[in-house]
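Q: I'm teaching a short session on how sequence maps to structure, and I want students to see two examples side by side rather than one. Could you give me a first protein with its sequence written out and its structure tokens following it? Keep the formatting plain so it prints cleanly on a handout.
A: Of course. Example one:
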Amino acid sequence: MDFKNFIDGTWVTTSETIVNVNPSDVSDIIGHAAKADAAQMDRAIDAAHRAAPEWAASTPQQRFDVLDAVGTELLARKAELGRLLSREEGKTLPEGIGEVARAGQIFKFFAGETLRQTGDRLASVRPGVEIDVTRSPVGVVGLITPWNFPIAIPAWKIAPALCYGNAVVLKPAELVPGCAHALVEILSRAGLPDGVVNLVMGRGSEIGPRLVESPKVDAISFTGSVPTGRGIAESCGRHLKKLQLEMGGKNPMVVLDDADLDTAVSACLNGAFFSTGQRCTASSRLIVTDGIHDRFVAALSEAMAAMKVGNALEDGIQMGPVVDERQLQQNLSYIDIAAQDGGKVSGGERLNRATEGFYMAPALVTETDNSMRINREEVFGPIASVIRVGGYDEALQVANDTAFGLSAGICTTSLKHASHFRQNARAGMVMVNLPTAGVDYHVPFGGTKGSSFGPREQGRYAAEFYTTVKTAYTLP
């Protein structure tokens, strides 16, 4: 299948393409994706710039109808599109179907937000003067999305952008063109004016700077790596462009002596290894107090060993492959580094399955301390390390001792410790007796420190990024 770019209401081919390979079976070629050049990106930006005023002037009913229709189709096709997602990205089929359903729910939520308008009518300190405070669209928004959630993350950027009256240019990760193409294909039939939604695929290093630096793009929303995010921030700062960054985490899960062992193991197994650990909210640092440490490590190791790793499309699989060979090699190199630094590694070996793919066993690294590289740098794979601590106070200190601050969790039956951790964990999201990964679509998503920059994503808080506040004074 050919995955084309979508510019100004037209599907556009390119002379060069990028091969889309199934990470569960490298002999399975899903299709070929358009590889855009700078000229195509410029055309998409120009189209969005021309279309933005018309969509900004659209009625709430028009916006509702578009977003609701997209959400309805995504939910109706979740099995079909979930299979495409799992085939393309490598997460298990239930996870793929669940992600498509979430994308549909996101569009449904923001369909509702088009009608739940807010504003203020205020009295001035000057007699007879009326004040209205309203929100206006930002204009043209560039959206740069990663490969690990290839339909949910584009959805939670596109849906609020359209809800609040903006035009968009979507640049998805080149590893997962199929999902972006499928989502934009649905949008292309939903009743949008030409140019309101544009899809431009290709190498980020080649076309990304064009999107970020264009004077016709008013805002950039980026999800990806810290180095790329910092570069985008520098460029947006020079151009005084509105910016939203989500860049990853090194998320702690604290397990206290009083934790229910089954609950703790379940939360850590899910948080660290589901979706092959390829989540920015994954539990990569397991901070465990002395009294439960040995029992917890033994129980988690047993649960890990029982995990079924294999082709993402097969029934009963709990963990699919790593997304590609490059990511797999990076994961294996971090395991070597952890061992060289004194960690004790169990699991983590490359696996062979009936089909050739990028398979590895989940890995647990014990006997680590928080200064090791395995505990300082984001790995983005099914690898978790265990840090033994003496008690709650030390656990909280270690949890906060990181350059990241996306998600943090604690397993405990103590209301005192749970409440204190919720207030004092330096993270944008805190989980108690739940995995650090897995959030709802109607609440804000984002972190602190090196994990995030700018307004939150999702929920009603999305309005802070996709709109600008206007204050109008009237003397009748």
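Q: Perfect. Now a second example for contrast.
A: Example two:
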Amino acid sequence: MRRQASSSSSSSKGPSLSVLTLTMNPSVDLSTDTPKVEPVHKLRCSEGVHDAGGGGINVARVLHRLGAPCITLCPSGGPTGHWLETRMREEGLVCQFVPIAGETRVSFTVHEASTGQEYRFVMPGPTLSETEWRACVQTIEKLPAMPDIIVASGSLPPGVPVDIYAHLAELARAKGSRLVLDSSGPGLQAALTSGGVFMVKPNLRELGDFCGRKLQTPEEGLAVAKELVAQSKAEVVALTLGEQGAYLVCHEGAWFAPPLSVPIASAVGAGDSFVAGMVWGLRSQQPIEEAFAWGVAAGSAALITTGTGLCKTDDVQRLKPAVALQSL
């Protein structure tokens, strides 16, 4: 009989696990439509939709919709930060904010109605001082009880050292917690190099950046994912492939999830929704492959929703039975 992943639970559900999401570079996400994106001319847009954004915040929003409360932690500053805090509380999220001198960024997505193309403009974020970014880590260190799962998701703003996620992985491991990481670039590189990450969710490009070469095929990505697990750089690798599906690799096995056939309205938040779906399964102490299936369903459900709306619970529940995992 195949064992379940060492840090996940058996197939019988026990008490729910506690979750904290960390977003070092939150944003106010604006989405709008325009007939055609072209230079020079004024682009007349539809009324914009604003949402609280940034990787960990998006994960928390989806977890909340799925009925899995969590704590979400992020730095916040300026009038934009005040709006972000208000919106997050309006959505019912349990929040902790670290005040910063800089102003929280605004990012925006434009849907071109004439072609269906989507343009995403992502700002770098405010520069955090050492005191500010250390306060984010210390907030976790000083929690009365360490959460069972820490989700660190999103980019790092200027001023934050690239090894912050590696430090969080070490902290989580020392305190009996598990770090789920969804990031890219030097932050991902440092965390995986140091080891201790429970789960990482790269796409093919991000995984190629990590290993220093362009990965041409999903099979090449699968081979690198297996190397990461074999070398104990991560216990679980969930490799998302967009329209080609996704892989899950851990010590106990590997699975492939073919893509679901859904109408694509927007790719914004699909990766965050995927992470939230998997964490929801892990929080419920489901087998690792079952959590993977929930991730695929949630990520696919996000594709149906326009703009920055993320996935809807009804769509996730409807799509879950269609996820047909293939054991590799």
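Q: What should students look for in example two?
A: Point them to this: The mean pLDDT is 92. Also worth mentioning: The radius of gyration is 19 Å.
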